[in-house]
Design a protein that fits this description.
The chain is an alpha/beta fold. Helix content is 48%, strand content 18%.
Length: 571
């Protein structure tokens, strides 16, 4: 009887559940009411498990019955320090003074916060029973050897210390468990968000690539129409269509940026210098009701990014901030250096340049924050935005080996941060390629091979080059292109990047093994520039969609100074 576990949990099935958890290891007695609990305590037991709410019962241990219980505890012999396990409810703040007093009256208390798992409860019960068993051993020992009152107090003090140590250990284990659960949930949420963005990015990149090719065909055929058509009334029609195609190209560019498939030209960029140079443009974009403030760090804030895309990202954020501050406010753009001592989330260890764009606008509800970087998601009214500004920022940051974050509270404004790896101290600025000429007259003896898997895109490029006056051959993929080099002996390759059998960079690399130093132009809406440079050095880049003048100027520039190759002209 002295080793049984008493359970006093008057609400619902709590007592039955607790008994079921520890019944296999201990003798358990359920006490239906406070009088039954006091009776069982007087009969003898090892530990009592009670719920915190029972302490607030007027008839319970914290009410009028409490006096009898306190009296019983006070009458314990020196060797006894009866343990209670209190199943507590998690509190949002400090407990009421009355609740704390009720717990203090019980003396030796192990406090376990609910919800808790069965293993924790079973372990606590076992620890309490073992502690009570040691108390019984002390009692027997004292009875056998008749030790003095001071020795009993010493042993009792040691026992209290052991119980306290065990209680602290149990509390520490419970804290670690709660922390591990919270970290696991946070990691799972971050993984789910990352997987979602990757899936959307792959889908968006594929759609944007195909759409970019369609725009390219439309744009260049409009150019041809304007050249072929002699009637004046055709010109405004073509201009309107080209304007629409230009807007479509801008949207496609933003989609490719989100999908991390955009063709970037990264170079050493001093962020503070770039932002100072943009201030006038930012003030114009923000409007007269918005004050633009720059808060730039004193350190060398240098990164390896595409500066034009960084400018576009900052402008996108500035426009979003302006729209969020309908009645005016403050737009603050700041920079700082952050050092990450270890890998954190999707960012690797190292130094990062952080660009923060903050506004004093209306803010964004928490339920929407996980969606703001999704393409086409917008909090603006219909017709007031494309929903691609923030997605472009996110994609550009990720493609530049960084990341974008957003913080916002309704009524407290919004802050978007872009984190970019800091450039090495010895990083040097790359040399700028000279601007191509304004489409000079072509040399008709020069031969050009166009390698493009999309038949419509290939046809319009070939037609435009022929219209300029070059001798042109074509191939539908990389394999056919390499075979055509031996027959056609071109002076220049114009090759698409994304093709089914091999990339344009691979075609250029293999072609230069056949013809050393063969000039090449990589025509693309997006490309992995690091992969391009590994395989093909730094070929000329012609961004799709382009017009006839851009094509002609790029070709003339690439052929300037290049030797002519002998051979029969083929098609």
């Amino acid at each position: 009887m002295e080793f049984r576990v008493l359970v006093h949990a008057p609400r619902g099935r709590d007592a039955v559940v607790v008994k079921g958890v520890i019944d296999a290891a201990h003798e358990v007695a359920i006490c239906a009411g406070p009088q039954a609990l006091l009776h069982c305590l007087k009969e003898g037991s090892a530990v009592a498990i009670i719920t915190e709410e029972s302490l607030a019962d007027p008839c319970g241990p914290g009410g009028s019955f409490g006096e009898s219980l306190v009296s019983w505890l006070a009458d314990q012999p020196p060797w006894s320090d009866f343990p209670f396990i209190v199943l507590a409810t998690r509190q949002p703040g400090r407990r009421a003074a009355s609740a704390v007093a009720s717990l203090n009256n019980l003396g030796n208390v192990i406090l376990l916060e609910r919800p808790l798992n069965a293993e924790t409860l079973s372990s606590a019960a076992g620890a309490a029973v073992r502690a009570r068993t040691r108390q019984y051993a002390t009692r027997q020992h004292l009875q056998e050897i008749g030790r003095t009152r001071s020795e009993m107090e010493r042993l009792n003090s040691e026992l209290e210390a052991r119980i306290l140590e065990r209680t602290r250990a149990l509390a520490s284990a419970n804290d670690r468990l709660m922390k591990e659960i919270a970290e696991r949930e946070k990691a799972q949420a971050a993984l789910t968000q990352g997987q979602k963005m990757e899936a959307i990015g792959r889908l968006t990149g594929g759609i944007a690539h195909d759409f970019n090719n369609l725009l390219h065909v439309v744009n260049m055929n409009l150019e041809l129409i304007s050249l072929y058509a002699k009637e004046e009334k055709v010109k405004p029609v073509v201009d309107r269509a080209k304007s629409a195609a230009k807007r479509g190209a801008k949207l496609t560019n933003q989609l490719l940026s989100f999908a991390r498939s955009q063709s970037l030209l990264p170079k050493l960029t001093h962020v503070n210098t770039l932002l100072v140079g943009m201030k006038d443009l930012l003030e114009i974009s923000a409007g007269p009701g918005v004050t633009v403030e720059l808060e730039l760090c004193e350190q060398r804030a240098a990164v390896i990014v595409d500066p034009s895309q960084l400018e576009m990202a900052v402008l996108n954020l500035a426009v979003n901030s302006r729209d969020a501050m309908g009645e005016g406010g403050v737009l603050k753009i700041s920079t700082c250096i952050q050092v990450k001592a270890k890998d954190e989330g999707q960012l690797r260890q190292g130094d990062y340049v952080v660009i923060s764009v903050s506004d004093t606008g209306k803010g964004i509800p928490e339920v929407l924050l996980s969606k703001v970087f999704d393409p086409f998601f917008t909090t603006k009214p219909i017709g007031s935005g494309t929903g691609l500004g923030l997605s472009q920022v996110y994609g550009f940051a990720r493609q530049s080996s960084g990341l974008a974050f957003i913080r916002s509270e309704p009524g407290q404004g919004t802050t978007v941060e872009m984190h970019f790896p800091a450039a090495a101290a010895n990083a040097q600025a790359g040399s700028e390629p000279p601007a191509p000429p304004e489409m000079p007259l072509c040399i008709k003896s020069r031969r050009i091979l166009v390698v493009e898997d999309d038949p419509d895109v290939r046809k319009v490029i070939v037609e435009c080059l022929g219209l300029i006056g070059y001798s042109v051959a074509e191939a539908a993929n990389g394999t056919e292109g390499l075979e055509a080099i031996a027959r056609f002996k071109p002076d220049l390759l114009v090759v698409d990047y994304a093709m089914p059998d091999m990339t344009g960079a691979e075609v250029i690399s293999k072609a230069r093994e056949m013809v050393a130093g063969l000039p090449a132009i990589l025509a693309t809406g997006y490309a992995d520039m690091a992969a391009v440079e590994r395989l093909a050095g730094k070929p000329a880049i012609l961004r799709k969609p382009f017009d006839i003048n851009s094509l002609g100027a790029a070709v003339a520039f690439a052929l300037e100074g290049a030797p002519e190759h002998e051979g029969a002209v083929g098609t």
